[in-house]
Write a structure and sequence with these properties.
The complex is a heterodimer of chains A (355) and B (212). Chain A has helices at 11-22, 82-92, 106-121, 151-165, 169-182, 230-242, 289-305, 336-343, and strands at residues 26-29, 34-37, 46-53, 70-76, 98-103, 126-131, 183-189, 209-212, 223-226, 248-255, 260-267, 276-283, 309-316, 326-333, 346-347, 352-353. Chain A is of the alpha/beta class. In chain A, α3 (106-121) links the parallel β5 (98-103) and β6. The longest helix of chain A is centred in the C-terminal third of the chain and has 17 residues, at 289-305. Chain B has 212 residues and is mainly α. Chain B has a single domain, classed as Alpha Horseshoe (Serine Threonine Protein Phosphatase 5, Tetratricopeptide repeat). Classes of the chains: A alpha/beta (355), B mainly alpha (212). The interface between A and B is medium-sized, with 31 and 30 residues.
């Protein structure tokens, strides 16, 4: 293991310390750990997210004006714990409540649910919306369901802007749900990655092979094959996303009338000719930006062949897996509302425009 | 030594014993978690139960003990195991409320309700290769002893034995929940780390009650 670390036990603490020093609009809190924007959300709905560390800039890099009010980082590849979300929620939420955007990993879902239960006991109204946009996985009956990938970033951007427009909690939750069913992603890896705690690669991916459909912690995907050209790999992922059929599953949401968690049936879209989309070509941490542009060129071509037009794009490292080489593609269908909110000003460490 | 009731003292001894056992088995649990999870279960359980041991409140109220354990596990274990074990001990606390000292019927009900709460939180049932596969048979075994007029000592022994058998039975199972579920058929042939730690925790209770 070759890493720029001091002590494997302290990596998240030390990294957050530096993050806070580098970004004066961000406050880093410890015991419990969370980061929050300096400007508060007292007069509007607050939006928070969180997840394991090792995926930077997600989520802390998206805290700030027009996006997240706070983010809760866990240990590397480990979900944060409810005390973190409770502290963050109490810090940033006012009378209008709190939206928690949660990637669909078992640990994240359960910890954010417990946090919501605890915050509710403290008088803060909370809604959790789960993002599960990874089309590599087919079913939710025999697995924990599709994982949360790049659509999370668009949900955080769009919902952060909507909160600033004055959306109430129910409307904001509905918007977040819409972004989730409008978004589809898929990833691939060229190499494994090593968490500082374990010191050895999370999985074995031999020279000359790649894994298609991999998760951001190295969970297996749909196929392990001989390595192919950038164009061939992009074709596989893009076609998978663009031709993915509508996916129906049940996601847990808090039901205010029943005062309990209920399964809400959610059905996502299929992309149609004429759709206008936001595209993300996301690096996993160890792939150079130049290679991502090669992928983007092919993605634009494949989308065009399906009659789908990319009207906004992000090319870069947004949801990483430490030093893993590889990339993921996300397409999110837009409508007037999503596009307006996406274009709204944002000023965070990792995303900035219009201000 | 046999016991007819569980006291707050027994519960405190249980958690300390569980912390010791989980520490001794840290590497084993993490090894079980490597092929089908993310290789952190042993570390997480050790950290969580050490925190729970340190947070044990004094006094005669078993509900207060279980609640403190739950809160420590929720904030210190992490991953999915933190909220699931936290839910288990919160449900125990709820049943222990005002029930001290705990007889075998109260214990059987508490274990049943705790399993039900974990099933609901994790949307899991028996046979999905999770901690439920140890916790559920343990509750059933405890209830059977209660129905047959057994003692608390016999009941916790039966529960521990059933949990261990349940953990072993996860080996051929196809994982249907948690990170292991992404592996599909490749999850077969491995013992579930969560079921294993559950069995260790219930064995610790049996040992403490037996004076070991």
């Amino acid at each position: 293991m070759k890493k720029l670390i001091n002590n494997a036990e302290d990596v998240t603490v030390e990294q957050l310390h530096g993050f806070g020093l580098a970004h004066e609009d961000i406050e880093v809190h410890s015991d419990p750990t969370f980061v929050s924007a300096v400007d508060g959300a007292q007069d509007r709905v607050a939006v928070i997210s969180g997840g394991g560390s090792g995926h930077e800039p997600l989520h802390g890099g998206f805290v700030g004006l027009g996006m997240l009010d706070a983010a809760c980082p866990g240990q590397v590849f480990t979900s944060p714990t409810p005390d973190q979300m409770v502290a963050a929620g109490k810090r940033v939420a006012g009378d209008r409540g709190l939206l928690q955007i949660v990637k669909n990993y078992t640990g994240d879902v359960l910890n954010f649910q417990m946090a919501a239960d605890m915050l509710r006991e403290d008088g803060i109204e909370v809604r959790n919306i789960v993002i599960d946009d990874d089309v590599a996985l087919k079913d939710s009956l025999y697995t924990a369901g599709r994982r949360g990938l790049g659509t999370t970033l668009i949900a955080e951007k769009v919902c952060g802007a909507a909160a600033r427009e004055g959306y109430d909690l129910d409307r904001l939750a509905a918007l977040c749900r819409k972004v989730n069913i409008f978004g589809k992603s898929m990833g691939m890896a060229l190499t494994s990655c090593t968490t500082p705690q374990n010191g050895k690669p999370s999985f074995d991916l031999p020279e000359g092979e790649m894994e298609i459909g991999i998760g951001i912690h190295g969970e297996p995907g749909v196929a392990r094959t001989k390595i192919k050209s950038a164009d061939a790999v992009t074709e596989i992922l893009a076609n998978h996303i663009l031709e993915d059929e509508a996916y129906t599953r049940a996601l847990p949401e808090w039901d205010r009338a029943q005062q309990d968690w209920v399964d809400v049936e959610v059905k996502d879209i299929t992309f149609q000719s004429g759709d206008q989309v936001i595209a993300i070509v996301n690096g996993m941490g160890g792939t150079p930006l130049s290679e991502l542009y090669t992928v983007y060129a092919k993605l634009a071509e494949v989308a065009g062949r399906h009659g789908v037009k990319i009207i906004r794009n992000l090319v870069g490292n947004y949801i990483t897996s430490l030093e893993m080489a590889g990339m993921s593609i996300t397409l999110v269908k837009t409508d007037e509302e999503i596009l307006r909110l996406y274009d709204a000003p944002v000023n965070t460490p990792a995303l900035r425009w219009g201000c | 030594m046999t016991q007819s009731v569980l006291t707050a003292d027994t519960l405190r001894d249980w958690i300390r014993k569980a912390a010791d056992v989980l520490s001794e088995n840290r590497a084993y649990l993490t090894d079980l978690d490597s092929p089908i999870g993310d290789a952190d279960h042993g570390n997480n359980m050790q950290r969580g139960f050490n925190a729970a041991s340190a947070a044990l409140p004094p006094g005669e109220d078993p509900a207060a003990v279980a609640k403190a354990v739950a809160m420590a596990l929720i904030s210190k274990v992490g991953g999915a195991a933190g909220p699931l074990y936290g839910t288990y001990f919160l449900a125990l606390a709820k049943r222990f409320e005002g029930a001290a000292p705990l007889d075998i019927d109260a214990l059987a009900s508490a274990l049943e309700e705790a399993v039900a709460a974990v099933k609901k939180r994790g949307k899991a049932e028996t046979g999905m290769k999770t901690m439920i596969d140890a916790l559920d048979p343990a509750a059933v075994a405890c209830r059977m002893e209660a129905t047959q007029g057994g003692t608390v000592s016999l009941a916790v022994q039966a529960a521990a034995k059933a949990a261990e058998a349940g953990a072993s039975a996860t080996v051929p199972m196809l994982a249907q929940r948690g990170r292991a579920s992404y592996l599909g058929d490749r999850s077969k042939g491995h013992q579930d780390p969560g079921a294993t730690s559950s069995a260790m925790i219930l064995r610790a209770l049996a040992d403490v009650v037996a004076g070991r």
